[in-house]
Design brief:
By secondary structure, the protein is mainly alpha-helical. It has two domains: 41 residues, Homeodomain-like (Arc Repressor Mutant, subunit A, Orthogonal Bundle), CATH 1.10.10.60; 157 residues, Tetracycline Repressor, domain 2. It is built from twelve helices and no strands. Helix 1 packs across helix 4. The chain is flat.
Length: 225
Amino acid sequence: MPRDTLTSEQIVSAAIDLLDRDGLEGLNMRALGQRLGSAATAVYWHVGSKDNLIALAADRVWNEIGRPDPAAVGWRAAAAEMAVDLHAMLTRHPWLVQAFGSQVLYGPGKAGHDDHGLAVYEAAGFTPAQADRAAATVFTFVLGHALGTAATISLTRRLGRDGADGSERLRARMAEVREIGARFPRLRARLGTAAASYGAAPEASFEFGLQAILDGLEAQLTSRR
C-alpha cells in the first residue's frame, strides 16, 4: 500500500491486531508493513516510531470501555459497568498490561475514560479528593486481576518462542509447581481447582472483589449521610 493511501487509523488498527496475536515482542514495523501490504518506511512516516505506535494503539482501546450516565443508571451501576468493561478490555488486549511498565501511555482516550470515572464517583456524593481515591482503588483492583491473564499469555508465548508448544511447556512447569504446593495442607486441598492454574484466581473472584469494593464505598457514603 503506497504511503499516500495508507492512513494512521489503518496502521493503528493493524497494530492492535498484531499486538493481540503476538504481544509487544511481536510488534515490528516490517511485520506490520507486510500485514498492510506496505513498506516499513511508509509506516514510520505516519506514526514516527514504534513507541509512538504503541501509545496510539493503547489509547485507541480505551475507547472500547463504555461511559454510562450515572444520572440514568445510578453511580454504583455505572462504576460497576466501567470496571467490568475495563477488565474485559485488558483481557482482550493483554499487551496493554505489559506496556504500562515500558512507557508512559496517556492520550485523549484514557483521559476521557478517567474523567468520566471521576464524574461517576462525584455524582455519588464523594468530594473530588475522595473520588480520586475511589477511582484509583477500583482501577488498581481491576488491573491486578487482569495481570494473571496477561502473565499467562506472555509466558506461554515466550516458552513457545523456539517453535515448541508453549502451552505444553507451561503445563510441565506447573506440574513442578504443584509438587511444591502439595507440601502445604491448604494449597494441597486446592490443587484440583481453577485457582491452581498459573496466574489464575478462584472462580468469580473478580465479581466478589468488585462488589466488596463498591460495598465499602457505598458504606462510606451512608455513614457520612
